[in-house]
């Protein structure tokens, strides 16, 4: 190995010493010139922002942590196949919507499709019977909430894998094949799918909902799925190992919270029952579905109130029973952040509004720009797919604040008020979720025939 002779090294260092001494003297003089007065003045200037800076650093670090883990997660690919039972609870669903969704399930050839209709859904029952398909089994049952219908369908199911699907959800090609792949691992008890909004461009609130749900399945859920602990497998299309569900089915049907029987929140409850049984719950990003979402603001708010109530009941139960402390860190921190969002965001906004915001045109404009920039940055995964949605960024920011503060606070204090909110016994389809709510390029459909053609 070539080396510099010791004498040459000594000569080089000697030549550098005067320059290094001069640089050290200059640095020392600069530090001395600052004085404690300048340091104290600088601290006085920045210290009021220190609490917000710490909170922001924590929130952004958690977001980045989940973002990186989620984007590193890959879909599970195996040759595993099993027999499948599709179970569909349907309460006064618009028959046009139901029949269209049914074709998407039927085309993927499951072993059986069990549709549990309410006793009043005679039109849908007749249309399903007219198909004369022996694999499709419509059942008339007096619904006492979605859980009761799920219980009936699950007990009738004969095959290894249960695919629980909402009556207004369409499967994308190969969903059924892809959701079976993770079950090659005997410890996998449930598999979630990537879900987006059906006909998102028909309403600004559907576009907002699509943005929110898209980020959930791009930036949050895959990280928890890779750890084997998705805390809520969405019931729009949730897939379970039948042997994992049957032992806990009674606890799904008969859940009580503070003395009241729970009506909604079936998906979160069943997910935690399966996790508590020792199974893993994973996410399969290659299994994709489309689902109807409300077209109007009022129904959007109702849906978010219901979801927030369900989250509080589900996650507080998980904490109270000790289930939460037995799942991986990524799931624990996500659940706690969901629960504490109204507190953290509320305190931050209160501090900024009443202590730091400069109420001038320039000050308010700067605050709004910063808010939109932050929300846009967090939405980068969605915007890469739908770049034109940058135009609704202000509406999205408003919706996020609305959900995180007034809606979640209201939901917290009314979490034990049971009900579905967006579906009613005297109404066909959910609020803003029937076929007529779908708009054509020239306007709203005027007749059910027009809507049927669009759905088909």
Reported for the largest beta sheet, the result is: 8 strands, mixed
Strand order of the largest sheet: 3-2-1-4-7-6-10-5
What is the helix/strand order?
Answer: HHEHEHEHEEHEHEHHEEHEHHHHHEEH
- The percent range for strand residues is 5-15%
Structural class: alpha/beta
- So what's the overall shape? globular
Helix content: 40-55%
Distance between the amino and carboxyl termini? 77 Å
Overall pLDDT confidence: 87
C-alpha Rg (nearest Å): 28 Å
Strand elements, count:
12
Q: Runs with pLDDT <50, length 5+?
A: 1-13, 440-454
Number of helices: 16
In short:
The protein has 456 residues and is of the alpha/beta class. Helix content is 55%, strand content 14%.
């Amino acid at each position: 190995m070539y080396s510099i002779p010791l004498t040459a090294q000594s000569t080089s260092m000697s030549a550098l010493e005067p320059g290094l001494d001069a640089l050290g003297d200059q640095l020392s003089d600069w530090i001395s010139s600052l004085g404690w007065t300048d340091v104290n003045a600088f601290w006085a200037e920045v210290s009021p922002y220190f609490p917000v800076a710490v909170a922001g650093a924590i929130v952004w670090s958690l977001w980045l942590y989940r973002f990186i883990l989620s984007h590193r997660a890959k879909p599970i690919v195996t040759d595993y196949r099993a027999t499948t039972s599709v179970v569909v609870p349907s309460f006064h669903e618009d028959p046009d919507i139901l029949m269209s969704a049914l074709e998407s399930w039927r085309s993927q050839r499951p072993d059986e499709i069990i549709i549990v209709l309410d006793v009043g859904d005679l039109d849908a029952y007749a249309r399903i019977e007219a198909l004369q398909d022996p694999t499709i089994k419509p059942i008339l049952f007096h619904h006492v909430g979605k859980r009761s219908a799920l219980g009936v369908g699950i007990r009738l199911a004969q095959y290894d894998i249960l695919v629980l699907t909402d009556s207004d959800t369409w499967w994308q090609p190969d969903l059924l094949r892809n959701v079976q792949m993770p079950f090659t691992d005997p410890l996998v008890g449930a598999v979630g799918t990537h879900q987006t909004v059906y006909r998102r461009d028909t309403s600004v609130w559907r576009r907002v909902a699509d943005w929110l749900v898209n980020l959930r399945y791009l930036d949050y859920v895959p990280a928890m799925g890779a750890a084997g602990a998705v805390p809520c497998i969405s019931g729009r299309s949730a897939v379970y190992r039948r042997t994992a569900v049957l032992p806990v089915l009674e606890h799904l049907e008969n859940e009580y919270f503070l003395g009241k029987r729970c009506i909604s929140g079936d998906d979160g409850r069943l997910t935690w029952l399966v996790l508590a049984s020792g199974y893993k719950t994973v996410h399969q990003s290659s299994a994709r579905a489309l689902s109807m979402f409300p077209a109007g603001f009022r129904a959007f708010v109702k849906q978010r109130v219901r979801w927030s109530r369900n989250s509080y009941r589900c996650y507080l139960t998980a904490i109270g029973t000790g289930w939460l402390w037995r799942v991986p860190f990524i799931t624990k921190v996500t659940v706690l952040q969901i629960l504490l969002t109204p507190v953290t965001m509320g305190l931050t906004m209160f501090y900024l509004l009443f202590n730091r915001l400069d109420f001038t045109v320039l000050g308010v404009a700067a605050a709004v720009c910063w808010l939109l920039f932050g929300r846009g940055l967090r939405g980068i995964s969605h915007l890469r797919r739908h770049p034109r949605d940058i135009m609704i960024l202000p509406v999205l920011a408003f919706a996020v604040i609305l959900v995180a503060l007034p809606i979640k606070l209201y939901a917290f204090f009314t979490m034990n008020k049971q009900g579905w909110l967006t579906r009613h016994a005297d109404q066909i389809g959910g609020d803003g979720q029937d076929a007529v709510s779908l708009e054509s390029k020239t306007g709203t459909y005027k007749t059910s025939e027009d809507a049927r053609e669009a759905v088909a």
